[in-house]
Amino acid sequence: MTLRERLQAWRYNLVPDHLIGEILTKRWTDNAIPFLALVVTVATFGTLIPGFFKPLSLQESTRQLGEFSLVVIGLTVVMLGGGIDLAVGSIFALSAFAAVSCFFIFELPVWVAFAASLAVGAAFGAINGYLIGYLRLRAFLTTLVTFIIGRAIYDILVVAFASRVQMSSATSPIWDFIGDGTALGISVPVWAAFGLAIVTHIALTRSRPGWHVLAVGGSRRSAYNAGIKVRRTVFLTYVFSGLTAATAGFLIATRLSGAGPGTGQGLEIAALTAAVVGGNSLGGGRGSVAKGLMGAIIVLVMTNGLIRLGYGTGTNQMVLGLLLAVAVTIDIRWLKNRHKVLNEVYVAPVYLAMGPTQSAEPGSGTPYALNNRLSVADAIGLGALEGPEDVILDADDHLYCGTRHGEIVRFFAPDYTRSEVFAHVGGFPLGLAFDASGNLISCVGAMGLYSISPDRQVTKLSAETARSLTSIVDDARLRDPNDLDIAPDGKIYFTDSTKRYDAHDWTLDSIENRATGRLLVFDPKDGSTKTLLDGYRYTNGVCMAHDNKSLFFAESWACRIHRYWLEGPKAGTAECVIRDMPGYPDNINRASDGTYWMAWLGMRTPSFDLSLRHPAMRKRMARRLPQDEWLFPNINTGGVVKFDEQGRIIQTMGDLGGASHAMVTSMREHKGQLFIGGIFNNRIGRFAIEGADPDWTGMRAYWGAKP
Amino acid sequence: MIFDPILDIFRGKAVTIPPLDGAFRPNTALDDAPVFAQMPAPDNLVFWQGRVVASSGANLMDPGGDVVQRFGADVTALAVSPTGDLAVGLADGSLSVGGAAVALPADVRCITALAYGPDGRLWLANGSASLPPGQWAADLMMKNASGSVWVQDGGWQKVAGGLAWPYGLLPDAAGVIVSEAWRHRLLRLGQGKPQPMLESLPGYPARLASAAGGGAWLALFAPRNRLIEFVLQETHYRLAMMAEVPPAFWIAPALASGRSFLEPLQCGGIRMLGVHKAWSPTRSYGLVVRLGADMTPLFSLHSRANGTRHGVTSVLEHQGQLHIAAKGGDCVLSAGHTAEAR
């Protein structure tokens, strides 16, 4: 091994590249960028500004943050519903003025002042909501108009009444407490924002009105078709936004005990920036309260920080503008390209040096030498079948197989020309086995382990096992259950081939070659599923040894057969019995003469074996070429191999032309005949085996003579 | 998009090839064409002594399958002079005209094409300075561009060098049009700089033959394949492949494919429910293109991924009949009257 190859092996086998793809599949990665921005902002200004984290400084900042967050929460809800509210700044100012005038000029109680604020907010929100929701005007222009009008009214009122406010001598302890006091060391605005955030979050994620808002924002037309009252929902989001802005306005009124010309100036831009920087989509439907809060903190820390560093309003506005531009760009690009990024980085190949193998070429003289025996097999179900991965025969000689349509098809003995759909399971039924009471147990790709009773009742036995501690994507779920066999005590031993790819993408696992295959056991007594072995390169066929003391299982991409001991001194451990085969093993089944049949789903090729030692090349291949162009192992040529208890190869058969059995994934011996299935084939093959016991059946070998 | 240059570092550019479209729209004309002669690996077709003959290995064969003449090494190029002499290039690098050996410059050891111009001068394409014609795949995988074109004008004169496997010659009054296989293009050589006539071919061009009524026939002996183009960019893998893998099983263009399970397979080439998809990515293909007088493609004849008439290296139009040597399909086809071929 050259140094370069050794470095590649370390690089690709020790660095867990696959985690990037797995993390990207998580929804919470949408929060990652705003969260990172938040940490960076706080850390930067925290170090630049001395005393940034001092309690007193924080107290004042958080008071402001509470008010600001209230506005942002309201705007977030409007944006989630697919709208935009530019009027929050003027609503904020007007409701602050309403509170101030009620309290100072008319000397009314605090609660009346608060009610007046809310009334102003609700009224303006309702106007917006009515125009946008019911009259279906453009949100941007409509709220721009209400913003300008509201601002104008406010400016007129402030000029007219500001002096009377200042002259007033009204006081109230409640007013002062709201504006200046703390409860448990935390100011009222923070409590208010905190409370509203929780309520809004729960409402959005767990209540009918919240879901309606998200549905309307996600797709207005679909929401309408689903029977949601779209117009009312939109209307309510603006009312909500008006109310939160009004609450914030009331809070600033108590804090400043007055209202000046600057109140609420530029608030709409700051709030909008906060909502978008937090990661709420401008298009609606995507976002959360938490994102809004993150954005609020980022924006406030940044603007306050800049002011304290001595920068003027112009700089501040410019920074906000730039922030908004970047956030909108990232939002749109990320939304558009996330699945592309995921596609490009998901395949994370590892290094594997395959051992040298014996030749399987015809005439090579090795036990693996392929011939054309399978090409003469009679075809069953030709043209009617699609994808019989496994085949099995019952006590009455009827033939069963799964299809890619999720059905179990039964062919009737003796000539197998008539067939019926025995049961519809869904998924992709792969491995099959009969249990002692005649139930057909199947590993259903993408679903789990299922049982089909003789009267066609489909029952789920297992779809999950224990989750492993280090998994990112939940690996408890069975992703690609592949083959099974049943021990005399009824325990079902089965394989789940890969944790990385879904059942229909099983071939992609060969490109990555990561060892994530499992051997599991299902105990029908207590319904439990346990993982026995983990970390094999595509665990596949399972077969109980004739003496039932051990079982054989195939590790496809490593071209190995292992024996797992159920009893004896080596119980619970696995040992490799056949290694470095020239073909990729699939299902394993018993033969009548005390040996075993193994299917080869494909053949190793020198170019693919070499690519396994060049993981970087495979990674680039997965990124730069469309999937149809990827280099694959040769799964256009398969075979049937017979081996004995010690792992010696006895016989190999193939179909080199590939016309009838290009790929073989299973075979089943029954009364002197061999039935052959293939996951990509359109038929089941049948041919007589020389020298086989003409009375031997799998049913009798497993469960004895029929009573 | 402004981020693309930055993102490209992380994602790499997609490998793309020209689509089979327009004049290259696929059909099954080659698979439908009747067999004119059956022989192993027919390579170069010429009309000589009143009949069509083809080189097959070290033999010159007639349409009946009889050996007309046997040579000491594989025949790699043929041409018939205006006076009826047969010029034969062999794999050992020797050239004979009318049975008499012709001395060649020391640099010429890989004769891939011969052609007589209208003025009677003999043109010669030397595919590579370092490798014999049989190792063309290695020449591509080594990314060589050491081929040259020569003309016999008294002595031998080098017309152009630094060509990436010149494989076909079409001399005319102004000079010669040469097919440059590894660069997928046709060049006009003559006075001054080589001038590209047709670029971005969807396959590797082989020999050219003149067509009645102006223009030419171009045989493309293998298709371009995105995996192969990708491997050509992968230095470490490519060199390791050349060192460790037998040439027949390389990820490289081929004259025929699917004959051994040790050959590379691409995802799209998987037999699905007994069907080998015609449009699947493949290492071998059959393709003949009719070019107009200005070398623009007019129409084409195909044998697609699931066909067998692959690896066309030479075409001959004679008296309105089109003969096609499918080297990978072990047969010479007769596509009938050229007007019908369309």
UniProtKB/TrEMBL annotation, chain A:
Q: Does the keyword Transmembrane apply?
A: yes
- The primary location reported for this protein is membrane
Which one Pfam family would you cite for this protein? SSL_N
Which InterPro entries does this UniProt record tie to the protein?
Answer: 6-blade_b-propeller_TolB-like, ABC_transp_permease, Strictosidine_synth_cons-reg
Q: Name the keywords, alphabetized.
A: Cell membrane, Membrane, Transmembrane, Transmembrane helix
* Membrane topology (UniProt): Multi-pass membrane protein
Query: Membrane spanning segments where?
Result: 32-53, 65-98, 110-132, 139-162, 182-204, 235-254, 292-311, 317-335
| Compartments in which it is found | Cell membrane
- Keyword Membrane assigned to the entry: answer is yes
Highest taxon, organism lineage:
Bacteria
Q: Name one GO cellular component term.
A: plasma membrane
The residues covered by the Strictosidine synthase conserved region domain are 482-568
Q: What are this entry's molecular-function GO terms?
A: transmembrane transporter activity
Full protein name: Inner-membrane translocator
Species of the source? Rhodobacter ferrooxidans
Automatic annotation (TrEMBL), chain B:
Q: Which domain of life is it from?
A: Bacteria
* UniProt protein name: NHL repeat containing protein
**Species lineage, top-down?**
Bacteria, Pseudomonadati, Pseudomonadota, Alphaproteobacteria, Rhodobacterales
